[in-house]
Write a structure and sequence with these properties.
Order of helices and strands: EEEHEEHHE
Largest sheet: 3 strands, antiparallel
Helix content: 25-40%
Structural class: alpha+beta
Distance between the termini: 37 Å
Number of helices: 3
Radius of gyration: 17 Å
Shape: globular
Strand content: 25-35%
Length: 145
């Protein structure tokens, strides 16, 4: 698959981290300013956020926006939709890797329709495009609660 480059660039997010998993991440505008710690499962104190949580939050929000766009084009009400991103982190060969499961729900829609919309969103979501071929991503439609 060919690389996709935005043209024109509409927005550039900028954040700087110091200290790795035991440091801090701050956006250039100061709105995001979080302490980073390794989770307890990786031997850390688990008292701050970690890169996988930040990735899960970003992916779920971006995917939910893509889902809303796909639903809007199909004239389907996706009000109250939720996307939960489960980001797994573990060893892979000599390094580490991620795997993602996205659980998607839309109130008032049956699971088959949610599944269809979620797979259409997966085709256009920038996070999905960026991970395609690099990170296994599973899409699961679930009933809204």
């Amino acid at each position: 698959m060919a690389e996709l480059t935005p043209d024109p660039v509409l927005y550039t997010a900028r954040a700087t981290s110091t200290g790795g998993r035991g440091g801090r991440a701050v956006s250039d505008d100061g709105i995001l300013d979080v302490a980073l710690t390794a989770p307890k499962e990786l031997g850390g104190p688990g008292t701050g956020t970690n890169p996988e949580q930040l990735f899960a939050a970003g992916y779920s929000a971006c995917f939910n926006s893509a889902l809303a766009g796909v639903a809007r084009r199909e004239k389907i009400d996706a009000t109250g939709s939720t996307v939960t991103a489960n980001v797994a982190f573990g060893r892979a060969g000599d390094g580490y890797a991620l795997a993602v499961e996205l659980q998607v729900a839309i109130p008032g829609q049956d699971v088959a329709d949610v599944d269809r919309l979620a797979h259409a969103a997966h085709a256009v979501c920038p996070y999905s495009v960026a991970t395609r071929g690099n990170v296994p991503v599973t899409i699961t439609a679930v009933p809204a609660t």
